[in-house]
Description:
Helices cover about 0% and strands about 50% of the residues.
Amino acid sequence: QVQLVESGGGSVQAGESLRLSCVYYGSSGSLTYMAWFRQAPGKEREGVAAVESPNGNTIYADSVKGRFTISREGTTDTLYLQMNSLKSEDTAVYYCATTYTWGWPLTPRTYKYWGQGTQVTVSS
């Protein structure tokens, strides 16, 4: 059984930073991707960043490249998303996700397990 628990969301001003955390509970031996997604009101869920489990390769959406950094700490099975230079358009509920299968790393249907989400609000 897999459980993902996010934390770290909040309300900030544009230009400020936040760091999201996601703790993974379960067997991590065969994971393929761990990723962050977000969903703004009235919009579809979109992939933000992903890390491949075996080799640590990272993938980013164009909208966050150079501002966000995804990382994973293996000893604690914790996934992070460091978000810098936040913009109002980054406002959304952010979700942590993982899976045991291969596919498109920034596509929601690739993922089987999801966290409950954490709200990020950026005021301009």
